[in-house]
Amino acid sequence: MTDQVVRLTYPVSLLSVPVINQLIRRYDLTVNILRAQIGGEDRWLEVQLAGNPAVIQEAIDWLISQGIEVQPPIT
Q: 73: which residues sit within 8 A by CB, 6+ positions away?
């Protein structure tokens, strides 16, 4: 088991979609929300994804396919 921290930037169209819930159910990952800014022009979450490294990569690919930008966290 490993973990990876990423920043998820949402398009406005996905703000009312339960993406994190779908992510947890679909990929059986542990998701820890570390920081968030939702509102105005800022729509991002920094999350820690914990699980199998291959599954984490599949989950990231799925997030990207949903229209979410996935980046390393900004420090």
A: 5, 6, 7, 34, 46
The two tokens of residue 59 are 């989950």
Average pLDDT, the chain: 93
C-alpha atoms less than 13 angstroms from C-alpha of 42 in its C-beta half-sphere: 7
Say yes or no to pLDDT of 75 above 70. no
CA distance 56 to 4: 8
From residue 47, give the alpha-carbon distance in Å to each of 22, 53, 66.
14, 15, 17
The whole-angstrom distance between residue 24's C-alpha and the CA centroid of its chain comes to 10
What is the DSSP pairing of strand 30-39 with strand 69-71?
A: unpaired
Overall average pLDDT of the 29-41 stretch: 91
Q: What is the pTM of this model?
A: 0.90
Domains with residue ranges and CATH for the chain: 2-71 (3.30.70.260)
